[in-house]
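Please check this protein record:
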Amino acid sequence: MKRSTLITIIMALILIFGAYLWGMTQLSLVEPVGRLTVTKLGNPDMFPNHGNAEVLGEYAAKTGSKCVLVVHYGGDSNYRQFVQESPLSSSGEVKVLELAFVDPSTYKTYVDWGEVLYTFLFGIPEDRYTYRADGISFQTLDEALAYVDQEAKNYGQEGPIPMFYHGTVRAEGPYLNPGCGFPLYTQISWKQYGRFGAYYYVAKGLIWPYLSNRYYPYEISHLSDLQRLYNEGNLDYTVT
């Protein structure tokens, strides 16, 4: 096969895949964006006017979205939605919606590479997790997403909701550990866009904070100190 023919075929496949993703985005509940951050900057970190909440508000406002979704690995939080002020928004604010998956077996802060490989090849089984949003537990992802969809519509959302996964790691480096919420981000992307769409959004999303979160340089240059302070309970800025 001639090189020019091969290049033409590759370009055609890229264009077809791009058209597929564009079309699916118009029909989907969410548009996956990627990893929000790499470690705890302050705690609670999904809270009005926290630095990364401001990043979420700015991104949603710039894309014309009234809502933004952040997904997590379920811990003790109820993952309640909140309003983030955003001068760039036409209404002056953005609704931050949260959704967490809850692993019935254990809470893990490390990377289970066996689970990662299985997920990469086969996706996440529908009955693997339960889910939580606004203190409400859901047994299936469909139920959880239906709730998120209704809450977004109640706030006037039109079109897909930008979706981030939290991405924080409590120990060691963030490069091999994709961080909090990654499995749920993958599961939703797979459900909404199919296997290859999920692969694309995972690859694209992993680099988002390094290029687009203005707090990343501070977080990565103070990584060990921020992790230590958080694990010692000394990052709670709501305590006076």
Remarks:
- The chain has eight helices and seven strands.
- The first strand starts at residue 30 and ends at 35.
- The helical segments are 3-27, 51-62, 113-122, 141-154, 182-206, 208-212, 216-221, 223-231.
